[in-house]
Amino acid sequence: MMLMILYDFNHLHLQTLHSTSLRIIFAIMIQYDEPLFRPPSEAYSFILQVTLGCAWNKCAFCEMYSSKQFRTRKEEDIFADIASMQPYANHYRKVFLADGNAMVLSFDKLSRILDRLNEKFPRLTRVSAYALPKDIEAKTDEELQQLAAKGLKLLYVGIESGDDELLGRINKSENYESTAKALKRARAAGIKLSVMILNGLGGKNYSYQHALNSAKVINEIQPEFLSTLVLSYPYGEDHFAKKFDGEFIPLNTVELIAEMKVFIENLELESTVFRSDHASNYLVLRGNFPRDKQEMLDRINAVLDDPANARLREEWMRGL
């Protein structure tokens, strides 16, 4: 797909074609391979596809890259995209490496990409990417430290759950130990972490152990950023249930929030920014741990005590 993007550099936000308030407007023509995903916090970053699809792409709950076959992009094509941005390089401070787990690239290739970005983007302060724990584990401590020194400052990791039984049933390819070990190594190397837990992932049969063990693995990792999303069914509940290894009984809205209570009650974090405000969430929660833990629990308890009068997102407002 050929994508045209218009920016106003005085406000650094996406503009529509009919806007008349732009002071500096330019068009960027980049050939993106759709679908293209990025975290919400990367809305104003330069999105650079270095891989296409997801190297694992077998998780029962995820349909993001089901239409793509994983492959790495040629280095010359990546560098050509970087070169095409040269006239606008002073306006970018953040770059996000897409697609699903760009960290799967070898250390040497990632290092060369970071070198080129640093060369061409003089105001660059952060490069980030999606990652699987196994991608991190494939790098040595020294390599992780070198990547961090070259600007790879943040990794987004979908942990989904800290419960080994549930991770097996959704075909995640990771477990508690592999996740905790890899992510702690990344943090020790100077790379910050933004991790995600999937509310409702195990349904009724696994809800408590999912919440409890997810809190446990988060406590061990101590990530800088933590978010929760609610399990969604882009192809329908039955489609997910057939891919789930075992009996899956979905949680209703109140049960989802009750699961969140168990999760948050058991979090013991030293300094973590928490967000549960993705469009999939019924109850919006924002805060910093440990400061706002009790306030968030109070909000959850208010919903559980009187669900009929709770202020939750309407179904039509939810989605991916």
Structure characteristics:
alpha/beta; Transcription Regulator spoIIAA; eight-stranded mixed sheet; globular; disordered N terminus
- Output the radius of gyration: 20 Å
Name the shape in a single word.
globular
Average pLDDT figure: 90
> What summary fits the major beta sheet?
8 strands, mixed
Structural class: alpha/beta
Beginning-to-end CA distance, first to last residue:
21 Å
Query: Residue share in helices?
Result: 25-40%
The number of distinct helices, counting runs of at least 4 residues, comes to 10
Q: What order do the strands of the largest sheet run in, or round the barrel if closed? A: 4-7-8-9-10-11-12-13
Q: Which stretches of 5+ consecutive residues score pLDDT under 50?
A: 1-27
Order of helices and strands: EEEEEEHEHEHHEHHEHEHHEEH
The CATH class of the domain at 159-320 is: Alpha Beta
Secondary structure tally: strands: 13
Beta-strand content: 15-25%
Any overview of this molecule?
The chain contains 10 helices and 13 strands. The longest helix is centred in the middle third of the chain and has 19 residues, at 203-221. The protein has helices spanning 75-84, 107-120, 133-137, 141-149, 164-169, 176-188, 203-221, 237-243, 253-265, 293-305; strands at residues 2-8, 13-14, 27-31, 46-49, 51-52, 71-72, 94-98, 126-130, 152-160, 192-199, 225-230, 272-276, 285-289. Helix 6 packs parallel to helix 7 (203-221). The chain is α/β, with parallel strands linked by helices. It has a domain at 159-320: Transcription Regulator spoIIAA, CATH 3.30.750.200.
